[in-house]
Amino acid sequence: MKRTAQGIACTALFATSLASGLMAEGVGGLSQAIDTPKAADGIADDLTILFDYREDYRALSFGLQPSDRVEIGLSFPTYDDNDGSSSGNELSFGLRFLNESTYFPALTVGVVGIGSDDRGSGEYILASKSFGAVQVSAGLGWGRYAQEVAVDRGQDDDVFQTDHLFEGDTEPFANITWDTGIDGLTVAAEYSGIAGAQEDDTFAASLSYTLVEGFAVTGLVNNQGDAGLRLEFSANPAQPFVQTDIGRGPHPYAENSPALAGQPQPNEAQVFAVLQERLEDENIQIRRFSMRGDTIDVTAASNTDPVFARIVGRVARVLSAIAPANITTFRVTQNTGAFDSNVVVLDRAGLDDAVGKPNAAALAWDATSFEPSPLNRPAALGESEFEPRFTYGLEPTFKADFITSDTLELTGTLNANARYTFSRQTFVSGTLGYRFLNQWDQEDPPDEPGVRSDSTSYEPDIVFLKSLSLRHRFPIAPALYGRVSAGLFERAYGGVSGEVIWRDPEQNFALGLEATYVQKRAYEGWFGFEDADATTVIASLYANVGQNGNFVIVDAGQHLAEDFAVGLTVGRNYRNGWRLAASTGWSEERDSALKFGAELSIPLSWTSPDGGTGTTNLSVGGQSGDFGSRVSGTGGLYSELRASDKRRIEDGFGEFWN
């Protein structure tokens, strides 16, 4: 195991679900020295999460470099003024269109708060040059980079505003950063032409110290009387934080030979026993096994390995050595826990041809096909009757609150979860919650219940019933799945919900339809309801786009406010279990700028040498207004099915022989 202390620190950090930030990342989630931009100097897939705290300003920011030249940022700032508090929501982009060379600087253009002209928006053009451990940047800024409080610079009142871009007053800026090489110590200084409360120009300095790899603290100060603190978490989802303790290597692959046909062949029970024994050492479980004709059919799963392509490869390795010579096809079924989701079909001769070749993974993929799981299968070895079980646990969660507070407060909630599982497809679950850190001030309920805007009308400082519902998932036909749910789905709504998803494993898209009828839950008490109901009917398209796990989800239909709305989510599923996504939505009733949300899922296998398929999840922003909002907690099926996507498995096929 490598970097034990860092792994522990990282795990502890994410256990709180509170992310932190970076000295090199900040405004809008883009690279900066202190408050002025600098050139991005990371690599593809670098991720940073920053928390910026000052007396009159707080922000939680996410930054991602999908490539060496491009940065994408998402920031949630709040401002404290004499007139009270306000909050923002900023989607930002940075593009380095000219790389640095021996004699010429890199040139970068950036837009913070794209689609909005509020006080946090701004644009810049900068040139940067590195001299060893020192980077120098200078440029010209608009909006927030030219004014202490940027005012509206455009006349466009649409939900996506563009006429303010690179318009209005400009001011120069310059900065320098120096990696001292002393125990993770970095120093930065900057100049900006922005006039402040005390001086006509602004000078600032900062000192950053890396506590452990991936986590740093920065202190900053300027000549306008401001001081602040930044916390940073940085990672690269494509690179493991710790070296997984894989123990022994995988079993060798044995090519089939016609000469073996004349030798005694093992029967079904013998093959199953050896397969089960050898794969147990690799934490792979065989839940079903059959050998009929020229085909072996197994259902395989692992509690430690999130890469199903690697699981399939290790099953194939063992079968190659023990399967009778007449077996030509290996079928490996993937199961979500509720039902079989697809069948990966391997041609044994094709795998034989791939062994030892430089492009062995590509050749193995060519020998692979996909089929929908059949509804019914004959009895097989390894199957066992499901035994009902009761599970429970306590889960503290911490998050940055944008809903019940305008000041980005850290809130803490203790959740007591319980679940009784009747069968693989049916369970009832409930959650009790208590917010023990930073309660909200209860407001009088509105005359007519709102959709989301009345969240502070719910009774604070009590143990509340967060959810209590029954859920049943089932296959309807090959490639067609259904779900029904009933109960209290979330703090605000309870009712009934049904969903159908069509998903052919040979395709790179799926279609879904969810219909829900809910009643508004009472502002006080556990089981009461307000005199308000709603029906939602939402169709969804789930599409895998290109390579590297990129995906797009489009939702459209009638939402809780009886408005027609469209939701858009874009993101990336990494083959090791990481998931990053950003979302926004448009409603026919909303006339304000688009709001954005972010989701981050980190697999246990990334921070633990023992591996694991569990994840730590962080979400921020998203639905908070009355329009474009849907019910949560109904139990969407795609979250269970997405790990079985053909493209998701293909992206991990480089691990097939590992």
Write a brief caption for the model:
It comes from Yoonia maricola. The protein has 658 residues and is mostly beta strands.
Question: Which characteristics define this entry?
Answer:
658 residues; YbjH; twelve-stranded antiparallel beta barrel; Porin; 8 helices; 31 strands; signal; Exopolysaccharide biosynthesis protein YbjH; 13-stranded antiparallel beta sheet; mainly beta; GMP Synthetase, Chain A, domain 3
Query: How many structural domains does the protein architecture include?
Result: 3
Largest sheet: 13 strands, antiparallel
Overall number of strands: 31
What's the alpha carbon Rg, rounded to whole Å? 27 Å
Strand numbers in spatial order across the main sheet: 19-20-21-22-23-24-25-26-27-28-29-30-31
Mean pLDDT over all positions: 85
Assigned CATH class of the largest domain: Mainly Beta
Weakly predicted, low-confidence segments: 1-25
CATH topology-level fold name of the largest domain: Porin
Overall body shape = globular
SS-based structural class? mainly beta
Distance between the termini: 18 Å
Q: How much β-strand is present in the residues?
A: 35-45%
> What percent of the residues sit in helical stretches (DSSP H or I)?
10-25%
Give the second-level CATH assignment, the architecture of the largest domain.
Answer: Beta Barrel
Number of helices: 8
CATH-defined superfamily of the largest domain? monomeric porin ompg
InterPro entries: YbjH (IPR010344)
Signal peptide: 1-24
Keywords: Signal
Protein name: Exopolysaccharide biosynthesis protein YbjH
